[in-house]
Specification:
With about 325 residues, this protein is an alpha+beta fold. The protein has helices at about 15-20, 25-35, 45-55, 60-80, 85-105, 105-110, 120-125, 130-150, 150-160, 210-225, 250-270; strands spanning about 165-175, 180-190, 195-200, 230-235, 240-245, 270-275, 280. Helix 4 runs parallel beside helix 8. It holds the Pfam family PDDEXK_1.
């Protein structure tokens, strides 16, 4: 049963760690400042922080749209044995992106229902979309969509009759050395004794995601009892059209355990009361190491650190992982 608490429940995830490492101040707003901001008796600052938390930048909206299409494509195949064409999917992708831009033009409507409507960070703060980013997204639409359809995993799922889909976009809760951890797989399927996790990425190849892949394997082997030698993790990079396959060893499992313990210890050092997950003062959460992170941060409106050595934010490249 849902209960209202003064502070959010403690948990760990790969995305939470990434946000904490990038900017502790932004981490505070995201996980603590926004808590209970949806309640009728919330303070104005809580309401504002909660609304700002729901925003996303163009790259994140694009990535989410591609994930929606992959999910839709597979479910359509499962239910009706029919595959959407490139043109059908492209139209859906374009509509999703246009809808996000259109909804972002009406701030009052978004403020009334921030979970139900889209708001782009770029539109909210600068009232326009940076030309370089728009051009980048337009170029990626054709490329990423075609590479999605040509990806090894999607072709295998729709052509191999032995495929048994086990999970799609399911948020799972596991415990790692006593810490509650969230893990979400794009898709998990099985072919005989082989378990395949496919993870769609719309940016450039990135070696830093290895820890995330180890966490996927941890979930399969520790929670579902799948032997490591039967697990194959595929990172489908849709921009270059490459598929990187990763196998995980027992040493990697120990590595992700140690990572979670170390990350948790560091995060909890910012707590006044670890039992309640009560944070220290916001002033104890320092800003990002580089002011570039402030340019398209959701919480610019609230953060006094936002104007550190900034240039014209409407004409710069945006970090694909920002949002």
């Amino acid at each position: 049963m849902f209960q209202i608490t003064p502070y959010p429940e403690w948990s760990w995830s790969h995305s939470r760690d990434h946000l904490f490492q990038e900017c502790p101040r932004r981490y505070f707003y995201h996980y603590y400042g926004s808590h209970n901001g949806w309640l009728r008796d919330a303070t104005e600052e809580q309401r504002t922080t909660y609304r700002l938390k729901q925003m996303a930048n163009l790259y994140l909206i694009f990535g989410d749209a591609l994930h929606q299409l992959a999910d839709m494509y597979i479910r359509q195949w499962q239910a009706k044995g029919h595959l959407f064409s490139f043109t059908e999917l492209y139209d859906k992708l374009r509509n999703l992106m246009n809808q996000a831009v259109l909804e972002s033009k009406n701030v009052p409507q978004w403020a009334e229902a921030p979970k139900k409507r889209k708001m782009l960070v770029e539109m909210y703060y600068y009232q326009q979309l940076p030309k370089k980013i728009v051009e980048s997204i337009k170029e990626r639409m054709d490329t990423c969509l075609q590479n999605l359809l040509d990806s090894e995993s999607l072709r295998e799922i729709t052509t191999d009759p032995r495929v048994e889909i086990l999970e799609m976009e399911k948020l799972n809760t596991i415990y790692v050395r006593g810490e509650k951890v969230y893990v979400k797989l794009d898709i998990l399927y099985r072919i005989g004794e082989r378990y395949i996790i496919a993870d769609w990425k719309t940016g450039q190849e990135d070696d830093s995601i290895e820890e995330q892949l180890y966490l996927y394997a941890y979930y399969l082997t520790r929670e579902l009892g799948v032997p490591l030698e039967q697990i194959e993790i595929r990172t489908e990079y849709l921009l270059p059209g490459t598929c990187k396959k990763t196998t995980v060893t027992a040493a990697n499992i120990e590595q992700i355990e140690e990572k979670i313990v170390a990350s948790t210890t560091e995060m909890k050092s910012y707590l006044q009361n670890p039992v309640q997950n009560q944070p220290l003062s916001i002033l104890d959460f320092q800003g990002a190491a580089h002011p570039r992170s402030c340019r398209f941060c959701n919480y610019r409106q609230l953060c006094e650190l936002k104007d550190r050595e900034l240039t014209d934010a409407t004409d710069v490249e945006l970090d694909e992982n920002a949002g």
